Amino acid sequence: MKRLIVASTSTVHGSGYLEYILPELSTFFKSVNTIVFIPYARPSGISYDVYTAKAKEAFEKIGIVVKGIHEFDNPVDAVKKAEGIFTGGGNTFELVNQLYKNDVIHPLKEAVENGTPYLGTSAGSNICGVTMMNTNDMPIVYPPSFDTMGLIPFNINAHYLDPDPTSKHMGETRETRIKEYHVFNETPVLGLREGSWLQVTDNQILLKGEYTARLFRKDAVAIELDTDTVIKQETLI
């Protein structure tokens, strides 16, 4: 049975790394002793070791050991044998590039589909969608494909921001960019606000957290989804 937590962010304002979601993770990973951490997105270019240490510190609080995928001799075997997996945030282009480069993306998809519990935050959540095309990140590298794991039947726009009516900024809003995407693409997009996440259990997708989420569909008016809403296939049409 497929089990995922797809979170908009790792850190909400005023709290520490993963702090806001640790109670949920304690239950989600209750049968897990060790997690394989995928640091490929590494924010601001920090080393894999530094990023992994940050994840280790957070999971120590709920009694779980973390080991970075780069610490294994074979990353594919690490994913296949993992008790649980966490992919952190950073740059989605670099994350996807490294997943393809290390031949990990397909084994990762298979492991999650076969029941390995998976946590993604930010970039690690973007790769749960059909493609990574709704990332907010700068294209600093060129991955072999924009196709990602397709574990949910839509794309994620993490850190979704509503337009600020008092702002003098004249550039595109997040909603404008998603509408531009839908000029050429059919896949629905979920704008996931910071502090909210998706709890995926097999084919059920439940919105959790403090905030509503905004669902965009091609040639349709965007709708707000309340927390604790099950996102059904008919909602996406």
* Mean pLDDT figure: 97
Give, in spatial order, the strands making up the sheet with the most strands: 3-2-4-5-1-8-9
Order of helices and strands: EHEHEHEHHEHEHEEEEE
- CATH class (first level) name: Alpha Beta
Describe the structure.
The structure is a single chain. The chain has 237 residues and is an alpha/beta fold. The chain has one domain (3-163, 181-236): 3-Layer(aba) Sandwich (Rossmann fold), CATH 3.40.50. The protein has seven helices and eleven strands. The strands form two sheets. Strands 3-2-4-5-1-8-9 form a seven-stranded mixed β-sheet. It has a four-stranded mixed β-sheet with strand order 6-7-10-11. Strand 6, helix 7 (174-184) and strand 7 form a beta-alpha-beta unit. The longest helix is centred in the N-terminal third of the chain and has 13 residues, at 48-60. It starts with a strand and ends in a 12-residue tail after the last strand.
Write the SSE topology.
Elements: E1 3-7, H1 22-28, E2 34-38, H2 48-60, E3 65-68, H3 75-81, E4 84-87, H4 92-101, H5 105-113, E5 118-121, H6 123-126, E6 155-158, H7 174-184, E7 189-192, E8 196-201, E9 204-209, E10 213-216, E11 223-225
Parallel strand pairs: 1-5, 2-3, 2-4, 4-5, 6-7
Antiparallel strand pairs: 1-8, 7-10, 8-9, 10-11
Put the structure in a nutshell:
The protein is 26% helix and 21% strand. It is of the alpha/beta class.
